[in-house]
Specification:
This protein is an alpha+beta fold. It has helices at 2-6, 24-32, 48-56, 95-118, 131-143, and strands spanning 41-45, 58-60, 66-68, 122-126. It contains 5 helices and 4 strands, in the order ααβαββαβα. Bound molecules: zinc ion.
Length: 144
Amino acid sequence: MLTDRIAAEDAAAGFILDGFPRNLAQARVLQTSPAGLIDKVVLFVVNEDEIVRRIGGRRGCPHGHTYHMEDHPPVHPGVCDVDGEALEQRLDDSEAVVRNRLAVFGRETEPLISFYDQLGLIVEIKGSGPVEHITRQILQAVRA
Ligand SMILES: [Zn+2]
């Protein structure tokens, strides 16, 4: 299905896959399909504690307004600025759950990184810092 999609006319000038392939089998299929030849793999290198801080600090109200305890706090702690609802942390965002997800992700991703590294396709980008800076690095990586 994906190989059909990237062979379509509107993908002729190139395409970006986000979060795919997820495993070695998918990567091999992609790399042997003429349309699916990957020429760059952008690897975001992030500090685990920073990920835990970012995700662990997220809070939201039942109406979907989101905050971050340090980066974007509400005016009154624990209360939504827009509607006064109590802010809560999603269970998925707790430190233990996040650290476990990172461990699983690391185990699943390691073979992919080796695969693309052997092909010389990996471009590492530091995934922390201002969004504009990261965006600039991504654009440089895919244009080069
Ligand atoms: Zn709200």
